Amino acid sequence: MNDVTQARPLVQVDDLQVHFPIREGLLRRQVGAVRAVDGVSFDIHPGETLGLVGESGCGKSTTGLAVLRLLALSGGSVQVEGVDLAGLNEREMRAMRRRMQMVFQDPHASLNPRMTVGSIVGEPLDVHAIGSRAERRERTEDLLALVGLAPSFINRYPHEFSGGQRQRIGLARALALNPSLIIADEPIAALDVSIQAQVVNLMADLRARLGLSYLMVSHDLSMVRYLSDRVAVMYLGRIVEIGGRDAVFDMPRHPYTRALLSAVPVPDPKRERARQRITLQGDVPSPAKPPAGCHFHPRCPMASARCRDESPQLNGPTGATPSPALHRVACHHA
């Protein structure tokens, strides 16, 4: 776990909202909205990894896309290196994306099958007109070597590689412009179990060597615990708990976090039999019609009348988290 200082955060997300309109009829009249992200705040410090976890559909991938402004913001702000992304035009945003890149979940779908590996990895250099043709080729070969692939693979096509090798190609492409921030959206979910550890170790090594910051979007809690310095838990578009990795995993304060962690397999059979498994009742509500009050209260064993009427806020200072060590929870009973 990195020593995270009190220096200015690399990324500051404050009250981020991403709503998708629901339209009907010939006139496409808006009748509602899907509140995919509904008031999310966090920060990421230089060299830090923040794990963003939660069930499928909680809004964590949408959050990652919105941070890169690949999705339009409905409200709130995202600042990267002190620059508010919402105020940038297309030309300014393109220049800003040199500082932040993304690794996608499916390494097969995210690589153009008609392009060689050299063209894929070198494309960011071409787009931003960096270096001569010879310099770009040399940089591309160096990037392949950096992620553990032979530079001679430069003329091959994606279909000639395994899933783990394709994800390494995706990592090489993300590193081409020397970014400060990489958003990794379920980077090992599509890989065989035997390959997952190799990719995770590679990402950890790249962070140490290059001083990268990661926003690690995942439902794999074991991977998040291994890679992350801090962890944020999302439920139905909101962060319900955020804090240091060990604090969240060893002393979870939100009932939803405790339920998630109780489902993580434990390799020790005695510990597995002894621990209490928490099974949540009911289904996740629709983000188009979230419950009043606490979004989690219909499934929470601790819910009270206050939970049904009053929406809890993350305790502590408002806005983005001011201290990496602060453990915050949005629960009336925590």
List keywords for this structure.
334 residues; alpha/beta; Rossmann fold; seven-stranded mixed beta sheet; four-stranded antiparallel beta sheet; 11 helices; 11 strands; globular
Give your account of this protein's structure:
This protein is 31% helix and 22% strand. The protein starts with 10 loop residues before the first strand and ends in a 5-residue tail after the last strand. The chain is globular, with a radius of gyration of 21 Å. Strand 4 and strand 5 form a beta hairpin. About 1% of the residues have low confidence. It is built from 11 helices and 11 strands. The protein has a domain of 172 residues: P-loop containing nucleotide triphosphate hydrolases (Rossmann fold), CATH 3.40.50.300. The protein has 334 residues and is of the alpha/beta class. The strands form 2 sheets. A 7-stranded mixed beta sheet has the order 6-7-8-3-9-10-11, with helices on both faces. The protein has a 4-stranded antiparallel beta sheet with strand order 2-1-4-5. Helix 3 packs across helix 4, helix 3 runs parallel beside helix 5 and helix 4 packs across helix 5.
How far is it from the N-terminal to the C-terminal residue, by CA? 26 Å
Strand content: 15-25%
The biggest beta sheet is recorded as: 7 strands, mixed
CATH superfamily of the domain at 9-81 and 217-292 and 312-334: P-loop containing nucleotide triphosphate hydrolases
Mean pLDDT, all residues: 90
Q: Which percent bin holds the helix content?
A: 25-40%
Broad shape: globular
- CATH uppermost class of the domain at 9-81 and 217-292 and 312-334: Alpha Beta
Radius of gyration: 21 Å
CATH architecture call of the domain at 9-81 and 217-292 and 312-334: 3-Layer(aba) Sandwich
| Number of discrete helical segments | 11
Total DSSP E strands: 11
Low-confidence stretches: 318-322
What structural class results from the helix and strand content?
A: alpha/beta
CATH topology of the domain at 9-81 and 217-292 and 312-334: Rossmann fold
In what order do the strands lie side by side in the largest sheet? 6-7-8-3-9-10-11
SSE succession = EEEHEEHEHHHEHEHEEHHHHE
InterPro entries: AAA+_ATPase, ABC_transp_ATP-bind, ABC_transporter-like_ATP-bd, ABC_transporter-like_CS, Oligopep_ABC_C, P-loop_NTPase
Keywords: ATP-binding, Cell membrane, Membrane, Nucleotide-binding, Transport
Domain ABC transporter: 11-261
Pfam family, one: oligo_HPY
